[in-house]
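Let us walk through a complete example step by step. Step one is to write down the protein sequence. Step two is to encode the small molecule, pyridoxal-5'-phosphate, as a SMILES string so that its atoms and bonds are unambiguous. Step three, shown after the inputs, is the structure prediction itself.
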Amino acid sequence: MSLLDRAAALDAADPLASYRDRFLPAPSVVSYLDGNSLGRPLAATADLMDDFVRDQWGGRLIQGWTDGWLEWPLTLGDRLGAIALGAAPGQTVVADSTTVLLYKLARAAVDARPGRRKVVLDTDNFPTDRYVLEGIAAERGLALHWIETDPVTGIEPAQVAEAVDADTALVLFSHVAYRSGWLADVPEINRIAHEAGALTLWDLCHSAGSVPIALDEWGVDLAVGCSYKYLNGGPGAPAFAYLRHSLQDSLRQPIQGWMGHRASFEMGPGYEAATGIRALLSGTPPILAMVPAHANLDMLAAAGIEAVRAKSLLLTGFVLELADEWLVPLGVEVVSPRSAERRGGHVTLRRPGFEQLLEPLWAAGVIPDYRRPDGLRIGPAPLSTSFTEVYQGLAVLRDLVEKHQ
Ligand SMILES: *Cc1c(COP(=O)(O)O)cnc(C)c1O
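Step three: the predicted structure of the complex.
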């Protein structure tokens, strides 16, 4: 069977194939391979945005706040927790950006472990995670312990075991590494960190909506993630934070605003934190930017995260198959885990000179993700990408690599 026939056969057997039709068309795009950076919009999102502006905002005006907007950070958080995070109600909020939530949670965590002076993290984590922790370390007089990870794989439990000790307040890692796509063993790393008395903070940006997550079951203490990648929330859509029930009374986040107050509208003289997860909020929630979440969560609930993961593995498996057949012979390297057990939702390819191919790729309607210095990330979002689309995109890449040999 030719690879094109294989793509067609995989599409014909795909139980999620019809979900593609729910997305707005992008006429100039032949192959969108960057769902891990910005998910595509649903047609339902355009309608919801229009209704929201005309009816809820335009029609109800300030009454919208008491109609329900004030509860959205919590109600959407609970839905997200149930559909994608394996989190029981009352532990997830939608708010801020991932960067700001990382700051709030990491500060709360290190302050809850007084006397412990060490934070363990890895050198290959997303820049914002590293930068935020640098700032907190400077602010609180902590030492950062950097684990060097293999750039083709990622954080290993044995490395964490070697790094944590009685002085460790917090460990911070990404569930799926943004560069290699390595899927970390979250329960095992949690077990190791907890044995040393440290708290664990997980960044779910590259796994939420793509890989099944079981925060409660895995013993995660704190987590953050963004909603504009596999969750299709739109550019700059608000992030989410998870704080396990048993820690909610003892952790205090540092940005004490009126929306995290026990009684926001009493406008009282001093700050008194709300009980429960609401205390993670700071200012007025970005309601307008939360509108798409309603359509996206409906879709993900209907599709089911297990089915999404099954298709994701077939998609990235097909990427590997095409890469091995077409690109590896041309000097391209696969710099992602190959085993399904440790593979997240994207595959990264490496070759010097990829940067020069970006413009001709875009001109041909093929949109992968480029990461300096020479990595192309292929991130086919399962609900919006077909196998034929992956075939078409990588065929264009193959032709360009051949031409630029
Ligand atoms: C995308 C991403 C972020 C983004 O943070 P923002 O505050 O939304 O800019 C953070 N961490 C990881 C691991 C990411 O992949």
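Step four is interpretation. Residues 3-32+304-403 form a domain with the Aspartate Aminotransferase, domain 1 fold (CATH 3.90.1150.10).
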